[in-house]
Request: fold
Amino acid sequence: MVPPPNPRFKQVFVLSTAMLSFISFWKAASIVLCDFGSSAYYAGGIAMNAFGPAFPWFIMGVMLFSGLMLGIYTESCTMFTRGGVYVVVRAAMGKVMAKLSVSALLFDYTLTGPISSVTAGLYLGSLFENIFPLLNIHWQVPGRAFAVVFALLVTAYFWRANIRGIEESADNNSKIIGFVAVVAVALIIWAGVTLYVRGFTLPPFTPVFTPKALGWTSNFPWIKAIGAVGLLMAFGHSILALSGLETLAQVYREIEDPKVENLKKAVVVIFLFSVFFTGLLTFISALIIPPELIAGKYADNLLGGLAIELHGPYWARLFMQMAVVLSGTLMLVGAVNTSFVGSNGVLNRVADDGILHDWFRGIHKKYGTTYRMINIVAITQILIILISGGDIFLLGEAYSFGVLWSLTFDTLSMIILRFRKREEEREWMFPLNIKVNNIYVPIGMMAVLVVLLAATGMNMLTKKVATIGGVLFTLTFFTIFHISEKMNEKKAQLYARDEDPDEKLNLKQANDISAILPELSKPHRILVPVRNPNNLVHLKTVLETVEDEDTDIIVLSARIAKGLQSGEEVMSEEDKDLFSDVVLLAEKYGKTVKPLFLFSNDPFFSIAQVAQAAGCEEIVMGVSGATGAEVQMERLAMAWGMLKKPEVAGRSVLARVVWEGRQMTYQLS
Amino acid sequence: MIKQSDRVSLSTIISPENVLFLESGISTEEAVRRLAERILPQVGAIIPRKALFDRLAEVEKLNQVLESGFYIPHAKFKELDNFKAVLGLSGEGITDPATGIKVKSALLLLSPHKPAFFQRHLNMLSLLSQTFQPALIEKLSALKEPSAVVSAIIKKA
Reply:
């Protein structure tokens, strides 16, 4: 039964729980793959355009290399629940380098949208070219123009959707990846039959660079595009296939318990999918499609070309192409959304850290989203699409800059952290380490860094567009971050608090605690009152022991407010910090919590009231340094008795006060 | 579930001779002192006067007046084997300076300071706050006879 609103609760704030729902490893993997895997549709064609028929070897090599990068991301995720390049680099090298790395990352995220939407448009255009004659429509699809229009429409759609607050739906992502996997398996089997019937010749291993692909190196005759240098150049031209790994760091906080185990499973799924989907299909394409067609007709729609070049009747191949284009469009369009969500997420992360001016964090009045950040991302993407004119090679040229720099910064930071955070226990370590004193010297990671640095250096010389565009973009954002930081520092000195401190916290307000009851759906309920962000041992104990599937964990902060009828109670920065810590802890354990904040003139009364209203079976408190556990229990017992209705049969409720290594229990009667 | 041995009853701690009528205008500190004076003969043989008053002054800082207007100053002593209590009533009410709440009933509760007894101590606090709701407190404040007070409480409990 829902109790009537109590005058002691002047205001109840229930924090949005959207960010606290956790997902399976498969869904996490599918979110990453929608970004990471989508490069299969364009990476091969772009690489072919740069250094010829040797491209499948290098795309496969990059995919195998992705296993190493996934390993580095795994170690970083286990260290930082809310990680990503910015957080990792800041921890290792400080804010300046973090700002630089996140600027490069934004270049990657921002380009993800245009390259994906333009590619989807090119695939669709190519399909229409094959279908229209069969329908007696004699219209020559203007490939690039069509791709630009399609890309603009897709961008506009996700611009609007993100302004309205679309979540990156894990369910949709997993459905898309499931469909893509079915299409890929069909494609691989059919390609196997084709190769059996037609036979095949392995592509050459030696890259042959176009003058454009040599970039500035053509001005330095002593840099020969042969041998190890040639391999590095080709590797650099293929590295764009690695784009999307950062999404793993962004999605890690949403992975359910047991978090690290599920992360490892997600990483294995991502790696296998990438090797078989991007690596193998690109390789097969090179075996089946004649090189001149890859370089020409199918350069910007390689997998569509693979479908149409298979062995079999035309109608069946056309049907296969439709399936490939449909799956590709879904995946690529999903990547456009990822670019919006990712860019907005990264910008929000840096804004939280005070290096983006508050103006950027303006909240949409109706939808509560950070619309200015989304607008900037959308406008930048639209400009990029228009400037590219649908030229996928131009976009691909620029794309690898952000990918490589963010991976390099991340890897370098993880190596530094091995020394700087040597005491920190890691749940998983990238292999190949030598223990010297108490430091695990990361030989494996250092080897990866050498490869990344070499590829980054080579790319700076060979990719003019990437270097010029990337440096300009990175410096622009770095400058914005730097100026913002200075302005924020100045503002912090002038003002004690924001004009509207609640504006940026995703809160919904309710008049009484009954508002949260419909959201409690699990058979068991535990109430965890919190007060001090430095004393969350009890919450940690609950998160460690409670099963997420069958128990709702309500985390309550009751703030003492005198004169409750004023109606002017607002959450303080301390309250927000407390809940941020609660959310971080919940994310670390991958368990859902229901944060509840309320104003009351008696916190123990509030605890008893919420526990009775929500039907909690257990109340777990942290010990108060001011009064001690016994006094806490006494106050709870009095509040419990005062609220208890004599006519209602007493439920058995266990009250616990938990502190380091000890606990006191009391059965509330 | 609560063990049978941990169950508590108000009839075991409240009797007519332990009911005290307090005049209005005194402070809560003074009220506690008077309740302590009344309870002293029951515990004086095992708890020295100074120890009792010092302990009560100490815990009084932590004790809180309930919104219902009921006040339970309480302390634990290892010398005790069972509850000891005195009930004070004030028709006009004594204003608690910390909260501004009018205290019309105050029960001084002394409990054994033994781990095995802690559950019973908490149960007693819970039972007291459950029993002394505003309606009963109003009713008690109008009564003049200790026996009538005790019977009203037992009836309610």
Observations:
- Residues 1-7, 495-505 of chain A have pLDDT under 50 and may be disordered.
- Strands of chain A lie at 12-15, 433-436, 439-442, 507-510, 524-529, 551-560, 593-600, 618-622, 653-659, 662-668.
